[in-house]
Structures are given as structure tokens and as C-alpha cells.
Amino acid sequence: MATTNSDGDKSPKKFSLKHFKKALEIFTFVRPYRFKLILGLVLLFFSSMVFMIFPYLSGEMVDIALGKSRFNISLKQVGLILLAILVVQGFISYYRVLLFASVSERGIADVRRALYERLITLPVVFFEKSRVGELVSRLTADVERLYNAFSITLAEFMRQIIILVSGILFLAVTTPKLSLIMLATFPVIVIGAMVFGRKIRRLSKERQKELANSNIILNETMQNIQVVKAFTNELLESLRYGKSIDNTVDVSLRYARGRALFAVFIVSILFGALFFIVWQGAIMVSTGVITPGQLISFVVYTAIIGGAIAGLGNFYTELLGAIGATERVREILNENGEVDVKHKVEEPVKKLMGHIQFKDVHFSYPTRPDVQVLNGIDFTVEPGQKIALVGPSGAGKSTIVQLLLKFYPVSEGEILVDGKSIYDLDTTAYRKNIAIVPQEVLLFGGTIRENILYGKPDASEEEVLAAAEKANALEFIESFPEGMETMVGERGIKLSGGQRQRIAIARAILKNPSILLLDEATSSLDAESEKVVQDALDKLMEGRTSIIIAHRLATVRNVDCIHVIEKGSIVESGTHEELSAIENGIYNSLARLQFELA
Q1: CATH number of 17-333
Q2: pTM, two decimal places
Q3: How is the chain split among helix, strand and coil, in percent rounded to 5?
Q4: Domain 356-597: assigned CATH number
Q5: Rounded to an integer, what distance in angstroms lies between the CA atom of residue 552 and that of residue 104?
């Protein structure tokens, strides 16, 4: 198995007993259904043992027809016994399949739920280090391999073991001499199977990796389709995806060649051994050592045993692939989430006053530890006060908002809300007191009502309508034929920028936060839309502690305090009038430039 370290380098990881034991942890998801699994395994055992009666009865029928049977039984009686066995076999197989299906479907559903719950509780930095396509692949391809292992592979692997052991024991008792000849071929087959199995396993992993890479390209292209079309890079993306698919086909064909050679090896050895055994058996029949019926039973048992060996090789490879998938799934399940959504009782959230303090905060992003983003940020926001953060792009304004949301831990210093460190507060309860209206609003692909309700899922219809009205959104919503039931499309693509912003504001109003964060909420709008949205924002900010990030200084002229940030530090602070009075100040220069252009 190959793993990827934090630097993206692949390092080989050999399969060991330790990895196998770790892989068995996935069976914790099957534990609630263990009685069904045990019953299914019992039925599997009986089904396999019943199946092993057929070769013996086939040989016995030949001996009865030749008058050499050791039992006083007729062909009609043997036929009735076979019919009864078929009925029992069908009954057992039916319920065995149903039991395994129930265990696998429910168990894998629990795995999917657990993976999704863990993913949505992981911190932002995890998603910055991971690619969306890779995570989707783990939730689809890897989980599907686990499903196949639970529903088919595991049962068939155990069936082949039962057939192999019971077949060898039966032959050792009935025809010991021929059994020794047959068993002499086992070491060659087993060693060959191990060599081929290792090669096939490596190729299978390569194929899975290439498939994941192509899925990543597909996901990235679909998510950024507007950028692709705007830069007319359809051909570039097509070639990029085509190259990935070609790599997948190349690895898949090598994988297929390995499996084909493995099949040739098994078939050649098995058939060669089978013909040799038949030849030896024919000599024994001619000398009276065994009966013709015993020879036929032996040949059939040998073929079944040979098939079991071949099956074991294939199923063993599949199980190793499933163990690899288990490892990738467990990597996510073992990550530490920042909140606990499972079995959490919703309690009334204590409202914060909204008193914010940044004390000598230094910060570097975990993915870029060598780049210092904030250098000793100090400021205070009183409850209900409105402050603005202005400055050039990359100065650290949005980083301050992200730190306040507890998306990252600070490198040095502390952030206090109502006198307590935000890292000592329950994350869920804390974030329920905060609402953000970003520059680029991304809506969910449902209805307008569902997107507004995201701020407070249990809100009444009256509350939703009141929030939409305060956000200046109710008028355009009611102009749609479906009203609140209007589908907004993927990421809200069916709505204009101003409409999306007002839906986001309605969502924030419905949440009724103590602290409001506005990250350039009007910078991408035209003048008419900006006026409507700004009016809605003014209503939203009433009585709330508000932090506004803005490039357009006209939108922050009336705030209580403006902090000018440059290179991760606050270089100027004051009201619009105070900062404008600083003759060579940064804010004054920005204000003159913008207002003169206006």
C-alpha cells in the first residue's frame, strides 16, 4: 500500500498484522448487526457443506449404474435426495444473501454517515490541506470497496476456505493416494498466487489513484466552469482530463494483463495437475484400487478445490484493496473534529454581549507557516459598536475575521469576547452568536426559503417573511412565480449578485447574531444594487457589534472607529474625520483618491 505524507511524497507501506488489526476497526460499524452477520455466516457454512455433497452423489450414481455401489440404494432414491438437497440449498442461500445484504447496506450506511459527520466538523485548515475531489473519492470509491467487501467478497472468501478445507479432508479420507498427488501441486500454486497477488495489488492501487486524480480534475472543472469558459480553456481542460483518463487506461490495462497472467498461471497449473490426476486415477480404476464413481467424485472435488484456490487469490486481492480503502476512511474518522454534532442536545444559546478584544495577536496560516500574516494586532470593540477594517489587499483584514470565527488558532496573543478567550468557549454556541455576510455569497442549490432558513432552521414562516422584508428581499422574491419556493440553482446561479447578497442578509437577520461580520459585502455590486443592499445592512447592524471590511470608504464613513491595516499591523485608527485630518496618512490618501474619482 502507498500512502501520501504531508509533503505529498508517496512512501511505501507494507501490509502487516498491525494494519490488518487496524482495518478490523471498521467492523465496529457492523457490531449493531452482529447477530445477523453470525447467522449469515452459519448459513454460509451449511450452504457450503451441502454443496460439497453433490460431487459425492455424482460418483455414487455412476457406481450404482455400474452395479459397484457399496450402498443398497437406487438411482431414483439418489435423485430424490438430490432434489431435497437442491431445495434446502436454495432456501439457505436465499436467506444467507438477505442477511449479508442487510448487514452490508446498514453497516456501510453508518460508515457514510460517520464520514460525512466527521468531515463537516473538521476545521477549515483540514480542507485547505485536502482536495475536494480526493475527499469525494473517499466517500464514494473507497466506501464502495468496503460495501463490496462486506456484501460479496468476505462471504465468498470464507466460502472458498470452507470448500477448500472440507474438500481436502474428504479426499484424504476416501482416496488418500490420489489426494497426495493433488496436494503436491499446492505449494507451487500458493507461491505463484502470492507473487502474482502482490503485483496485482500494487497495480490495483495505482489504478485507484489514477481514478481519484481524474475525479479531482472533473470536480475542479465543474466547480470553476465559469472561469473555464471565461478564459476559453475548454480545450485545455479537455486535454488535461483526457491525459488523466489515458493514464488510467494505461494502468488499468497493465492491471488487466496482470490478472490475465494470473488466470493463465492458475488455469495451466490446475488443468495440468487435473489431467495428471485423471491419468493416475484411470490406472487405479483399471487395477481395482478405486471405483469409477470414486474417480469421478475425486475429479469433481479436485476441480472445485482448484476453483477455490483461484477464487482465494482473487478475493484475497480484493480484501487487501478493501483494507487499503479502510485505512483511507479511518484517516478521516480519526481526525479531531472541532464540534460534536452526534447525539448533541440542542440547548438555548446564551447571547453574548459582543465585547471584542484582540490582544497582541500574531498569526501565520498553518499551510504557510513561513509567512507572517498578522503582527501584533491590538484593538477593542465595545458592545453594539461598529468598526471598519480598511487597507490594501493582503494586509490581513479577512484573516482577522477568520480568527474571530475560530477557523484557526492564533500563533501568539489572545482574542477575547465578553472577557473570555474564544478558545475556551464552546465552538457551536459561540458561532451561533456570529453571522457573516461575505463578498461572494454562495447559496445552496435549494429554494429561497431553505437558504434563508439556514440562519435558523426552526424559524416560523412569519420570521422568514420578516427577515426577507428587513433585508429588502421580499419584493423581488414575491415577483417570482414560485415565490419562496423558487429554486436558486447551483450556488445561487439563477439569482443576481444583489439578490444573493440580500438572501444572505435575510439569513443573517434570521439568525439574530450578537456579532456581525461584513466582508466587503457590497464591493461587487452595481450602484443601484449597492444602495438597496447597504440599506438592508444598516438595518442589520442596528444594535449589534459589527466589524466591516471595506475597500469602498464611502460605506464606512459613519462607523465608530476605522482601523487601517498594512502588512499585518494596525497603522492608523480613528473616525473618518480624524483619519482624514492626518495629512500624509494612508487613509487620507485612499479617501482622496476614491472621493476624487467619485
Answers
A1: 1.20.1560.10
A2: 0.68
A3: 65, 10, 25
A4: 3.40.50.300
A5: 57
